[in-house]
Design a protein that fits this description.
Blueprint: H1 17-26, H2 30-35, E1 37-41, H3 43-46, H4 51-54, E2 58-62, H5 75-81
Parallel strand pairs: 1-2
Domain Phospholipid/glycerol acyltransferase: 3-66
InterPro entries: G3P_O-acylTrfase_chlp (IPR016222), Plipid/glycerol_acylTrfase (IPR002123)
Keywords: Acyltransferase, Transferase
Length: 82
């Protein structure tokens, strides 16, 4: 499948997907594990329990308008990125 794009979609209950998927792919397909980009809500960078699972990954963070003011100090930064 060289040269093709693949969408791998996960409907998850935790924020561990980036770490688990990379770990599972590392042995057999290390190039895929290294180049995969993850799309996630801002909880992966703000929640202390979730953050370690996404560190070191290619991450595209999406800020939800519904949760814009969950952490008031970050609201202005989130609005500038929308």
């Amino acid at each position: 499948m060289q040269g093709h794009n693949i969408a791998f979609i996960s409907n998850h209950q935790t924020e561990a997907d980036p770490a688990v998927v990379a770990l599972l792919l590392e042995a057999t397909h290390p190039h895929i594990a290294e180049k995969m980009t993850y799309v996630a809500g801002d909880r992966v960078i703000t929640d202390p329990l979730s953050k370690p699972f996404s560190m070191g990954r290619n991450l595209l963070c999406v800020y939800s308008k519904k949760h814009m003011y969950d952490i008031p100090e970050l609201a202005e930064m989130k609005r500038k990125l929308i």
